[in-house]
Amino acid sequence: MAYIEFIDQVHRSTKRDYLARVLAGDKAEFSRIARKFDFDYWDGSRNTGYGGYHYDGRWLPVARKMAGHYGLKAGDRILDVGCGKGFLLHEFTQAVPGVTVAGLDVSRYALDHAKEEVKPFLVEGSAVKLPYPDKSFDLVVSINTLHNLQLPDLERSLGEIERVAKAGKYILMDGYRTEQEKVNLLYWQLTCECFFTPKEWEWVFGKAGYSGDYGCIYFE
């Protein structure tokens, strides 16, 4: 298991006003709406989610970094658990022509509004039971998804990723290193159930038998 940073540039490209987020209104209600992972989460108000999640090419450098690190080549199979609208999967096909991609997400809305080029390869489903055979993917990624699960389901999902991956595995979680980052995370988040320090995350992964790599999003 290794801590690897692939997403930092994308994360830092978004400016966040933490106080404005928590003072904008009924944050508990915003969170309840966001957890439906429907229009309001993806393309509605910024108070309930992304405020409009559209393809803009920002994931291509991430796909290139991952492809280089894990030595991806034509013919390899990639799974994105929590693929959303499939933007990262599309970028994998651009970074490594000839790869086969698959994606799974709980959001019917996201899948219906996914990038057309990869839409045929996306399915609706839960990370706790992946509909794929053992060791069927050369790389399994899950970006900003598993922290939305409570611990029992998180453990099952980590086991499922371990099961279907025959090689590389990478997950990105919410984390914090300081009390300020912890407060900022609480102010900003809408859907996450689990957020820990890196050392705590490694303990969770060990208990679940997850042997892949990981990274954390920090709200500085």
Protein described:
The structure is a single chain. This protein has ten helices and six strands. With 220 residues, it is of the alpha/beta class. It is globular and about 50 Å long. The two termini are 25 Å apart.
In oligomeric terms, what are we looking at?
single chain
Shape: globular
CATH topology: Rossmann fold
Q: Write out the strand line-up for the largest beta sheet, numbering strands in chain order.
A: 3-2-1-4-5-6
Per CATH, the superfamily is Vaccinia Virus protein VP39
Write the layout of secondary structure elements.
Elements: H1 8-12, H2 18-23, H3 27-34, H4 39-43, H5 60-70, E1 77-81, H6 87-95, E2 100-105, H7 108-112, E3 122-124, E4 137-143, H8 151-164, E5 165-174, H9 179-188, H10 198-208, E6 213-217
What is this entry, summarized?
With 220 residues, this protein is α/β, with parallel strands linked by helices. The chain contains ten helices and six strands. The chain has one domain: 3-Layer(aba) Sandwich (Rossmann fold).
Task: Please describe the structure with a list of short key phrases separated by commas or semicolons.
six-stranded parallel beta sheet; Rossmann fold; 38% helix; globular; alpha/beta; 220 residues
